[in-house]
Amino acid sequence: MRDLSLAECEDILRMQTVGRIAVRDADGVYIVPLHYAFAEGAIFGHAAPGKKLRLMRLWPHVALQVDTIVSPTEWKSVLVQGAFRELTGEEEQVHARQVLVRAFEGNPLLVTAGHGHRTTLAEAIVFRIDPAEITGCAEGG
To answer: CA separation (Å) from 51 to 24, 30, 48?
Structure first.
């Protein structure tokens, strides 16, 4: 196994659009899939009102794991640890939605595809995760 450079980690974050976000829970850790975009050195995401958003508001220190898996012996994994920040200003909300749509090839429906609550991007609460640390490792290839 080898460590990935920051540049390699950022390339993976830009290429992928789905990861798993881990949020503190009173009983431990809550981990769920997250559609995201990596831009401007930050993770942009969206959420419908629910458990994930409630927990991130309570405990803003979160982690996002993103993987590329070719086989059990060939994979790359990136871990972003940082702080959740809900975007409340109209200008920053519009910007975040534009970042997300660009990452999903201009199709706002793809941003919310598979989203458990079927919230449209226009209705979703948008946020960003400002990384404190980005690390990664790889096996094979």
So the answer is: 11, 9, 9
pTM of the model: 0.88
Q: How does pLDDT run across 52-67, given as a tens digit for each residue?
A: 999 999 999 999 999 9
User: pLDDT tens digits, residue range 4-41?
Assistant: 999 999 999 999 999 999 999 888 999 999 989 999 99
- Asked whether the beta carbons of 104 and 80 are under 8 A apart, the reply is no
Asked if residues 30 and 97 have their Cβ atoms less than 8 Å apart, the reply is no
Q: Look up the CATH number of domain 2-139.
A: 2.30.110.10
Tell me how far CA of residue 81 lies from CA of 18, 22, 129, in angstroms: 16, 9, 8
Structure-block tokens of residue 140: 């094979």
| Closest by CA position to 127, among listed 38, 50, 44, 58 | 44
